[in-house]
């Protein structure tokens, strides 16, 4: 099985990573199933997810754009709002 | 006619006008034969296309590019059973695949792609519009988190799909727990396929099972925005605003089915 990764909308703040599986039959690659996507944000936790979940070449490419420090604060979920 | 040479003998063969004229005639006949042969265009030696590196009319394989340079370059594919023709051509501003009749008259466009990519049509239907509207379908993996952590959470099912049309993302997902784990705090669903860019929240629907509503709340809604980056799970009541679900509202058999559209 061949795994191919595509980095979409890579900015200094976030990226959407598409992964597609392929099988090679007689030299021709055929996609298997549908693509899987996950977006990562340049926050402390997002950077950790990139390094933990993506292959080294893709993680390195993302970090080359993101730099050494997070640009987005980790989200604090909604706790409430007045109507 | 075949030429019969004279065998000249010293002191015997006379140097006569007759013999000299025979030589002249031989030269004239040779020139005539050469000129006649050179004027033929019917391939008298049966030279093949392969012998001269040409493409055979009866079928061949090229290993280089074929260039057709004209004002309206075209290739015709002719179905000899029905005599309809498929024309592949370029007309200064767009690439066409057209269906034509036996006489070459246009019947309809099968495919059109403009040079600038602004318009593409399949028949009379637009494939995409100006701006190159992107379309994509795929899967994403929803991840329930409490207070930003997913420690100990396990799933019976956590699957999700997305459809992208231009800058709109349509998602649906099902999250069915076998354990809600030990993390505490506000509940969110992470793992979105694209980062939301909505200035205001994009709201969606959720069908909960085995969820205990916070005090005074009786309905759930989900929402994402650019700042959130995750799906918030918000409980509503009568006239008192919303509050986020927390780990306390979940059980080990909670199920969430949700759908949402948002802008990227």
Summarize the structure.
The complex is a heterodimer of chains A (83) and B (264). Chain A has helices at 44-53, 56-66, and strands at 2-8, 14-25, 28-41. Chain A is α+β, with helices and mostly antiparallel strands.
- SSE run of chain A: EEEHH
- The overall pLDDT average of chain A reads 88
N-C termini distance of chain A: 52 Å
Helix content of chain B: under 10%
Averaging pLDDT over every residue of chain B, what do you get? 88
Pair with the biggest interface:
A-B, 26 and 31 residues
**Would you list the SSEs of chain B in sequence order as H and E?**
HHEEEEEEEEEEEEEEEE
Beta-strand percentage range of chain A: 35-45%
Helix content of chain A: 25-40%
Q: Work out the oligomeric state of the chains in this entry.
A: heterodimer
Q: Flag low-confidence runs of chain B.
A: none
Task: State the major sheet of chain A.
Answer: 3 strands, antiparallel
End-to-end Cα distance of chain B? 89 Å
What strand line-up does the widest sheet of chain A have? 1-2-3
């Amino acid at each position: 099985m061949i795994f191919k990764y595509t980095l979409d909308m890579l900015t200094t703040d976030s990226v959407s990573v598409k992964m597609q599986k392929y099988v090679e039959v007689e030299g021709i690659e055929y996609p298997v199933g549908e693509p899987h996507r996950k977006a990562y944000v340049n926050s402390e936790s997002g950077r950790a997810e990139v390094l933990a979940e993506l292959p080294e070449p893709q993680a390195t490419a993302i970090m080359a754009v993101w730099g050494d420090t997070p640009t987005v604060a980790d989200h604090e979920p909604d706790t409430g709002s007045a109507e | 006619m075949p030429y019969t040479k004279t065998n000249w003998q010293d002191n015997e063969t006379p140097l006569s006008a007759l013999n000299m004229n025979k030589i002249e005639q031989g030269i004239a006949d040779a020139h005539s034969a050469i000129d006649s042969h050179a004027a033929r265009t019917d391939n008298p030696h049966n030279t093949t296309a392969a012998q001269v590196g040409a493409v055979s009319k009866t079928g061949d394989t090229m290993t280089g590019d074929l260039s057709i340079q004209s004002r309206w370059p075209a290739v015709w594919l002719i179905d000899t059973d029905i005599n309809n023709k498929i024309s592949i051509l370029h007309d200064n501003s767009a690439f066409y695949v057209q269906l034509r009749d036996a006489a070459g008259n246009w019947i309809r466009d099968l495919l059109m792609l403009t040079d600038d990519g602004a318009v593409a049509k399949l028949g009379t239907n637009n494939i995409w519009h100006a701006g190159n509207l992107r379309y994509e379908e795929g899967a994403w993996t929803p991840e329930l988190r409490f207070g930003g952590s997913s420690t100990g959470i396990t799933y019976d099912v956590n699957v999700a799909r997305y459809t992208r049309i231009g800058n709109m993302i349509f998602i649906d997902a099902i999250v069915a727990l076998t354990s809600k784990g030990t993390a505490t705090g506000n509940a969110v669903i992470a793992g979105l396929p694209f980062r939301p860019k909505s200035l205001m929240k994009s709201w969606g629907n959720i069908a909960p099972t085995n969820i205990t509503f916070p005090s005074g709340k009786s309905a759930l809604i989900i929402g994402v925005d650019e700042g959130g980056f995750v799906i918030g799970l918000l409980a509503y009541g009568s006239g008192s605003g919303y509050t986020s679900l927390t780990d306390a509202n979940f059980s080990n058999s909670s199920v969430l089915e949700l759908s949402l559209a948002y802008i990227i």
